[in-house]
Amino acid sequence: MMSFDPHISRRHFGLGALSILGTSFPLSPHRAHAANLPSITLRVASFRGMDSTIIPAAGLADFPYNVEFSEFNSGNLIAQAINANAVDMGGWSEIPLVFIAASGARVKIVATIDGPTTNQAVVVPANSPARSFADLKGRKVGYIRSTTAHYFLIRMLQKVGLTFADITPVPLGMSQGLTALKSGSLDAWATYGYVIPLLMADGFGRILESAENILSGHYFIGANPLQLPDPNFRAAAADYINRLGKAYTLLTQNKTRWAKAISPIIQIPEPIVLSDLDAQNRPYRIRPWNDGDIQSAQIVADTFIEQRLIPSRPDLKSVFSNELTALLTG
User: Fold this and answer.
1) Closest residue by Cα to residue 225 from 318, 98, 93
2) What does the alpha-carbon distance between residue 282 and residue 116 come to, in Å, rounded to a whole number?
3) How many CB atoms lie within 10 A of CB 66?
4) Regarding the domain delimited by 12-115+218-327, which CATH topology (the fold level of the hierarchy) does it fall under?
5) Of 70, 68, 78, which Cα lies nearest the Cα of 5?
6) Over the stretch 159-201, which tens digit does the pLDDT of each residue have?
7) Contacts of residue 260, Cβ cutoff 8 Å, sequence gap at least 6
8) What are the two backbone dihedrals, phi and then psi, of residue 90, each rounded to the nearest 5 degrees?
């Protein structure tokens, strides 16, 4: 079961006063009543190269409230941070959602992001003898606990009649997993993100199996329930989510601009980033959550129940909140 550690290290990016990028994105009229927005500080969790990069890149960082970004490399850590009241907002996939519900964590889902499932895969060293997933039997396989990587590794094993007992599973963070694979300490690594095309471009790794058709492509934006009763916070949070959605729309229309913005941040050559963006199987789109999102997440929950990673069916619906639904434009 997912544990929630209140001691979360964070890297801050103050963008509350940033208004030099030129594109205005004012609050809609039904949110204008929130007159004390300058008093609000949104503590937002961001993956490297995501929110804290793409909102300014789209010219949408002229917030009428303060935004303090913190950098994380997995959704489960973001969920931990919200539970610990260390941040107010952040995103993750269905997998942390299941552990949130199972643990009774203090987190609420306020919106859904439909997004790509590309760049989620099991990677092996370039010279690995493994040619099919069944070849990993008895091998040392790294994965990132309580994330999409954890889930799709289970599903891939099931497809070839194997379980975690048939491999040596090694839970590792992103940087530790990368180091272990490149040093030869792992036979395979279940991972996600730009590290995959980078490994391939550098000649260190190749994709053994993609999770593109395993994952649903449903991601969620969570909020701190301690803050949601405040109407000013709700107005600011909804405005932020709407800006993020608009940023995705604008940059999807100009992926060259998108790649140019994030390449120096994630330290991956721009052509590799652009190729990866072009290969996405669907665009990012933010919308209010619906019952179908809960039903999709239940499939994930049932998989973890079968693996005895959670004891019983969690009440997934209890994690979802309609506090921001009427304020979202997606």
Assistant:
1) 318
2) 5
3) 17
4) D-Maltodextrin-Binding Protein; domain 2 (3.40.190)
5) 78
6) 999 999 999 999 998 889 999 999 999 999 999 988 898 898 8
7) 270
8) 175, 175
DSSP-derived 3-state class of residue 119: coil
Spacing of C-alpha 284 from chain mean position: 12
Please indicate, yes or no, whether the overall pTM of this predicted structure exceeds 0.90: no
Q: Is the dihedral of CA 231, 237, 238, 240 positive or negative?
A: positive
Closest CA to 240 of 52, 36, 49, 8: 52
Domain 120-210 has CATH 3.40.50.300: no
**Length of the chain as a residue count:** 330
Do residues 104 and 225 make contact, with C-beta atoms less than 8 angstroms apart?
no
For tokens 């260190």, the residue is 204
Asked if 12-115+218-327 and 120-210 have one fold, the answer is: yes
C-alpha dist (Å) from residue 192 to 14, 26, 74, 199, 207: 27, 35, 10, 11, 11
Task: Count CB neighbours of 200 within 10 A.
Answer: 16
Q: Which residue bears the tokens 């993750």?
A: 92
Q: Which two tokens stand for residue 224?
A: 């701190």
pLDDT digits (tens, 9 = 90+) for 275-306: 999 999 999 999 999 999 999 999 999 999 98
- For the chain, the structural domain boundaries read 12-115+218-327, 120-210
Residues 113, 289: Cα–Cα separation, whole Å? 8
Q: How far is Cα 283 from Cα 285, in angstroms, rounded to an integer?
A: 6
Q: Is the dihedral of CA 68, 74, 75, 81 positive or negative?
A: negative
Which amino acid, one-letter code, is at 210? S
In whole angstroms, what is the distance from residue 260 CA to residue 271 CA?
Answer: 9
